[in-house]
Amino acid sequence: MEEEKARSAEHVDKRKSYAKLQYAQNGNGRNLQPTSSLREHEAYARTHTPAKPIENFLANIQISPCDQHTRGITWLELYILYRSRGYPKPIADPINIASAKASPAKQIQAFKKYTRGVIARSLGQSPDAALFRPRVPKIEASLVLEL
User: Fold this and answer.
1) For residues 81 and 83, what is the distance between their CA atoms, to the nearest angstrom?
2) Hey, CA dihedral for 113, 118, 119, 124, is it positive or negative?
3) How far is CA 108 from CA 43, 44, 114, 128, in A?
4) What are residue 63's DSSP bridge partners?
5) 3-class secondary structure, 30
6) In angstroms, how far is the first alpha carbon of the chain from the final one?
7) Which of 52, 77, 116, 123 is the most buried (most CB within 10 A)?
8) Residue ranges per domain, the chain?
């Protein structure tokens, strides 16, 4: 009996609990401040066609700083927001119906790749570029979207 209590006391769940995504209040958000556009990077835009819709998406989202009670948005949530606003898939479906479509994991991976490419070219060394860098999972995240 005492052994069971000792074993159950040994295991302490150290995972952080899920923090629900909270949106900023209307009027508190701002747009990203790009330092250039893909028009200045024609070679990249020409060879990476999904980059232009992603640039348009990033130009239209509203961001606001996080506080202790909010968390940042994940890549999955950002991709769902991108697709729900009617933007195209980063990897287009094949013309031949018999060919396999890209999996959701590959779509998100491509979305991250193109988003990072657009961020590197349009935001450059802007402080807004830091919002898209990986962070240690904490409640004090760096970005909240305003819808």
Assistant:
1) 6
2) positive
3) 23, 20, 10, 21
4) 30, 145
5) strand
6) 54
7) 123
8) 18-91+100-146
